[in-house]
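Design a sequence for this backbone.
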């Protein structure tokens, strides 16, 4: 996805934040197009929450240096206009458990200075949208984790923000609730909302994000689509396993540049496992009159990208479209087996 012809919901140039001698963010550049999901990944302490707090005006003073625009407004000079354009849902729920879900929503409507009639209309609409009508009159303390998260996002939407910051929104949720939250995010983006997502679940970023940035040591180590980032990491290969030693030896002779494992009777061939590569591989086996008992395609995933780029030595930024990563991938890869 290009950003040259699309309006930017968030733009940061040289964003830097330090506390005394401690540099937390060291020159962050961001370009998030409107109506997309942008995900920020990184290990604990990398600065993800600090980025969200700065962009959402929750840190005072703001950036130590750098230029930032959110929703078309200058962060330093138009902080109030930025606040009017955004919504924020953090790692910890803002829901008041002592009052009902409906009362939480109406309280948020009051904070946004909506009229009583408008507040009730918006509340009813959002409770229905997030499947909370039946629980609306119950104390929020009785809600499950997934229900509280849905209520939290519903409360965030009361003011009609066009940009939403979700800081690890599915932490602690069970898999079913997490998938429900993913559907909510997709619906928001379909409606034109921009979502800035931080998450500790790499699968979540892979599922949702149009673009992903990996933050390490206060710097962006790499940025791109999920597929672009996966291509940065070496290690893709096809593994063939045999039960017949004679077939194993024949295959090893027929194939070039293979890594042999005589004990397990398996061969490893470097490659991405594309349809063209697999067809060529199987063609060479057919020509040799050999058939493998098992074929497994190993391809790098976001776990590999994360581990490779957040190692201590991985401090150089990489653009996924133009340059390779400097780190070495760890041997954790997704697998697809064909028997």
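Sequence:
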């Amino acid at each position: 996805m290009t950003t040259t012809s699309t309006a930017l919901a968030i733009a940061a140039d040289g964003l830097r934040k330090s506390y005394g001698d401690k540099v937390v963010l060291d020159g962050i550049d961001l370009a998030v197009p409107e109506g997309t999901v942008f995900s920020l990944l990184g290990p604990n302490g990398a600065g993800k929450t600090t980025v969200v707090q700065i962009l959402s005006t929750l840190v005072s003073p703001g950036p130590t240096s750098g230029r930032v625009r959110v929703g078309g407004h200058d962060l330093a000079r138009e902080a109030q206009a930025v606040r009017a354009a955004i919504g924020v849902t953090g790692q910890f729920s803002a829901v008041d458990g002592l009052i009902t879900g409906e009362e939480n929503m109406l309280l948020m409507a009051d904070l946004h200075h909506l009229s009583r009639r408008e507040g009730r209309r918006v509340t009813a609409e959002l409770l229905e949208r997030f499947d909370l009508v039946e629980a609306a009159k119950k104390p929020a303390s009785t809600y499950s984790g997934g229900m509280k998260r849905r209520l939290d996002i519903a409360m965030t939407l009361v003011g009609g923000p066009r940009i939403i910051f979700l800081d690890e929104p599915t932490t602690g949720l069970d898999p079913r609730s997490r998938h429900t939250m993913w559907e909510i995010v997709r619906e928001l983006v379909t409606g034109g909302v921009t979502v800035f997502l931080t998450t500790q679940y790499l699968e979540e970023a892979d599922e949702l994000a149009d673009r992903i940035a990996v933050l390490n040591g206060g710097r962006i180590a790499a940025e791109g689509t999920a597929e672009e980032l996966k291509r940065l990491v070496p290690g893709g290969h096809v593994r063939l396993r045999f039960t017949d030693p004679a077939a194993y030896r024949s295959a090893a002779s027929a194939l070039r540049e293979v890594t042999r494992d005589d004990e397990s009777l398996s061969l490893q061939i470097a490659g991405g496992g594309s349809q063209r590569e697999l067809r060529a591989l199987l063609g060479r086996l057919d020509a040799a009159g050999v058939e493998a008992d098992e074929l497994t395609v190993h391809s790098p995933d976001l776990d590999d990208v994360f581990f490779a780029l957040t190692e201590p030595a991985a401090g150089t930024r990489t653009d996924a479209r133009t340059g390779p990563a400097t780190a070495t991938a760890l041997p954790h890869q997704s697998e697809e087996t064909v028997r």
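The two ends are 37 Å apart (CA to CA).
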